[in-house]
Amino acid sequence: MLASPNLPARGEVALRLVSSAGEALPAELGERFKAHFGVDIVDGIGSTEMLHIFISNRPDRVRYGSTGWVVPGYEVELRGEDGHSVPDGEIGDLYIQGPSAAMMYWGNRTKTRETFQGGWTKSGDKYVKNADGSYTYGGRSDDMLKVSGIYVSPFEVEATLVQHPAVLEAAVIGVPDAEGLTKTKAFVVLKAGAEATADELKAFVKDKLAPYKYPRQIDFVHELPKTATGKIQRFKLREQELKAG
Q: Does residue 238 sit in helix, strand or coil?
């Protein structure tokens, strides 16, 4: 795997520990970093509501493609739409319980009741628990798509697209087809000087994920809308599609 020409050579930097947060770390990016620098990236998740990281990889235990394991002192549950726990391997809403949780949103009773439920805090994220006890990010609950009656994680499709050697970044949203059914659409930024066709990328995703997850449409763009901290703003892409429709 070739290193990016913008990265310093391995011998030019001295790294002991590297951490990542804010946006889930794609496995391909973590593996490329480790291959180039010889140091793992420790990825985890915390939130303003919990005031602490509650799931994380460890310096001595990293599983790329996952957010890691529950941090001591915290408990997590994955729940379905009926509010009951889901079996391991199935996607569910992430709830957290721990000593650092906030009490409320100031002046917002409705949001408080939705997020803080007894001793549990609803994170707004979808996760899957793996056989080794680690947790894999499935996407924000309000970004999840239902395609053919089955949940599709935009993050999973995006993380697969960026494994293609020509792709720099990708964002996936749901758009209605002619019959009003939700289908996946990807917005792709190619690397400088690289080329790829929509059909090539669709076939690439089909080869790695369940066929129903591949993006039915692909638009090539120069950049993706992002927050000041670099998070992709999928809602702006959805708004753009509504205006175009």
A: helix
